Amino acid sequence: MNLQAEMTEAVKAYKRKSRGGHRAYVNQVLPQAKELVAGQCTAETRPRIAQLKASLEEQLTCLRQLDEEILRDLVDEEGVTDGDIAEEVQVAGNLKGDISATIAALAELLKQKPRVLNRNILRVPELVKVRQLRFKTCV
């Protein structure tokens, strides 16, 4: 094998490893994002929601580029069947679809007005003085 072929193989291996790292990160972050989507947007969770959305958008861009390059390399390789290419496209498409759906859900969550959770609110009824010197119990 000549030097240029070795470098080409090294670049292909690098692209696959890089994509694997991006996929691993996404698979770690997606459950966290989905957990936040299942809840409410509060003042406390809003920064994390925005951070996850931005991170997933960045990962989606990287994965799209890497998937495209790897697919192009696969088409050029000898011995790669149509089934191999179809499987590659399906796996990549499923993950990108999941990422896109989660990004959209996070965006919708960020559109909501954040709920303020006041941890100092008393949980027991208090007597409150109202007009005409009457007392009323408020919960």
Descriptive notes:
- It is a single chain.
- This protein has 139 residues and is mainly alpha-helical.
- The chain has one domain (3-138): Up-down Bundle (Methane Monooxygenase Hydroxylase, Chain G, domain 1), CATH 1.20.58.
- It is 70% helix and 7% strand.
- It is built from three helices and two strands, in the order αααββ.
- It has a two-stranded antiparallel sheet with strand order 1-2.
- Helix 2 (46-76) runs antiparallel to helix 3 (82-111).
H-E string:
HHHEE
Across the major sheet, the strand order is 1-2
Q: Please compute the radius of gyration using only Cα atoms.
A: 25 Å
Number of strands: 2
Tally of separate domains: 1
Q: Give the CATH class.
A: Mainly Alpha
Which percent bin holds the helix content?
55-70%
Give the averaged pLDDT, no decimals: 84
Which consecutive residue ranges, at least 5 long each, have pLDDT under 50? 121-139
Q: What's the CATH architecture?
A: Up-down Bundle
Q: What is the percentage of strand-forming residues? A: 5-15%
CATH topology: Methane Monooxygenase Hydroxylase, Chain G, domain 1
Q: Number of DSSP helices?
A: 3
N-to-C span:
79 Å
Major sheet details: 2 strands, antiparallel
Structural class: mainly alpha
